[in-house]
Amino acid sequence: MNRFENRIVLITGAASGIGEASALRIAQEGGSVICADMDVEGVEQTVSEIGKNGGEAIALACDVSDQDSVNKTVERGVEKYGKLNALCNIAGILRFDKTLEAKMEDFDRIIKVNLNGTFMMCQAALPHLIETKGSIVNMASTAALGAHAWTAAYSASKGAVLALTKCLAVEFGRLGVNVNALCPSSIATPMVDAVVLPEGIDISLLKKVEPFDGKFRPPSDVAGAVAFMHSVASPSFDTFRSVDPAGAALELKTLMLDNVDVISSMNGITVSNGRLNLNDSAIAIRDWNGAADPIANFSATPTSGDELC
């Protein structure tokens, strides 16, 4: 499958985790990948792995919290390949703190990387994406959809990323740019592995954001969703989609609005393109990673305009 043949894709956070997996997946499908990360050694290893598999990629050092670094990364990528077809904003940081003990410097750092970095990358890339009628995938989180205890800064940043994505989807949709967000949870990445939980917390409060089976998914599961969102088939669906590939056990209410397409796992229920699907989340996960487009497997019960619980 060569969905990304002759397409140039910029991925931040490409040194590890979901960013690395997305870079490998898109290169495998024929895309040329601009791999950006602060971890220069790590991002060069990603590019080396892509090259070993016969793919095309370059490594660029980028601090997404610094506007000059962001602008130079986009400029250098476009200078190398002559265009930009897609942007994946995956770089991010996470920490857990008791709210009453959180330090403002830590709060500010998370906002600068997760939110400001996403905005600045979009701002720098959009002029090129308008030219190519390209696409953006922003990495949000189930923290943007439900309550993640002890992550005030992270949850605030990801909630804002989701709101930003909706804004950009409407603002640039008629110019041909497809803007979507992913809301994963419980993904086995170095960022998650490095988390230190505060002492004396009630760990049961984290259960609601975990998949039903309690198993962490590999980054490749999310990479499958990233690839689909950027694929040539994806723009045929209108404007905004939010996806939880891991199927976290969130109790949500989702309002389906005109021209808004939300995909989110809710206790085994998936809502897609104004349609309700009662298949379990494990099926959705296999679909994201499979060759077939997952949208084709969703059931056809219209619910547009209704509130779903």
Characterization of the model:
The protein has 309 residues and is of the alpha/beta class. The chain has a single domain (8-308), classed as NAD(P)-binding Rossmann-like Domain (Rossmann fold), CATH 3.40.50.720. The chain has 8 helices and 13 strands. The protein has helices spanning 17-28, 40-52, 67-81, 104-132, 152-173, 190-193, 219-230, 281-289, and strands spanning 8-12, 32-37, 56-61, 86-89, 135-139, 178-182, 242-243, 254-255, 264-266, 269-272, 275-277, 301-302, 307-308. The strands form 3 sheets. The chain has a 7-stranded parallel beta sheet with strand order 3-2-1-4-5-6-7, with helices on both faces. A hairpin with a 2-residue loop joins strand 10 (269-272) and strand 11. Helix 1 packs parallel to helix 2 and helix 3 packs parallel to helix 4. The longest helix is centred in the middle third of the chain and has 29 residues, at 104-132. It is globular, with a radius of gyration of 18 Å. The termini are far apart.
